[in-house]
Amino acid sequence: MVDKSEKFSWLVRLGYAARGLVYTLLGYLALTTASAASAGQSAAFDFIQNVPFGRPILYATALGLLAYGVYRLLDALSNIERHEQDAEGLAARLGAAASGVAHFVLAWTAWQFANGTVQRAAGDTGGAEAASTLLDWDMGALLLGIVGLGLFAAAAKQAYDAVTAGFMKHISPSAPSLIEPLGRAGHAARAVVFAVIGWSVVKSAWFVKAEGVRGLGGAIAALREMGWLYTLVAVGLILFGIFSLISARYRTIPDVSRADIAPRV
Q1: Domain of 20?
Q2: For residue 170, is it within any domain?
Q3: Helices (H), the chain
Q4: I need a labelling partner for 209 at 20 to 30 A (CA). Which of 30, 54, 176, 243 fits?
């Protein structure tokens, strides 16, 4: 049973810290070594493995990302964050499900770096490979297009939060005031990146070609020729990482009991 024990609470907070570490390093690499950042989150894990105590940090990162993924899936299935029963609430829960799956993948990648199965970040080809598999299915192009539209919706949500600071409803009032501008800038940067990824997915669905699908690293690389926008996005990713690190301490984590685990529609 998963409940709001101290262990589970701290694991979820470790997840926010792990997310913060990944985004901070990815933004840093984008500013200093753009070619490395094009490998996406794997580039951050590659960087970590070469620092002192890198392997224990990677194991902790993998554990935290796994816990965060579980938390997001629980929210999607059981509405533990008490989203409204309307279209916006449903969209939030669908987004939580997608986030949960994505963080499971990240946790697995971090684990592979930690145990030495993977020792070097490769190109950001995971999105293209997944799209290629999807396009082999009947109506795969349609499904891929829906995924692309979902990413546009996610970009719009990030932009909305950047403008309204809606994320603050999940932050403790005792958090430092600096967390709000950090969150606004970070969500704005993610809005741009998600829009680039969404556009690549929609184009690939339209032309039935998987090669153009970009992941996070590919989206960052696509902005490289845009000068000031690329720099702003890279800085924004760093700020989102710092925001996540602070959120690890001040994020309000709702109580989760046995009854909460039952799926709710």
Answers
A1: 6-257
A2: yes
A3: 6-32, 34-37, 41-48, 54-78, 87-115, 126-135, 140-164, 179-207, 216-222, 228-250
A4: 30
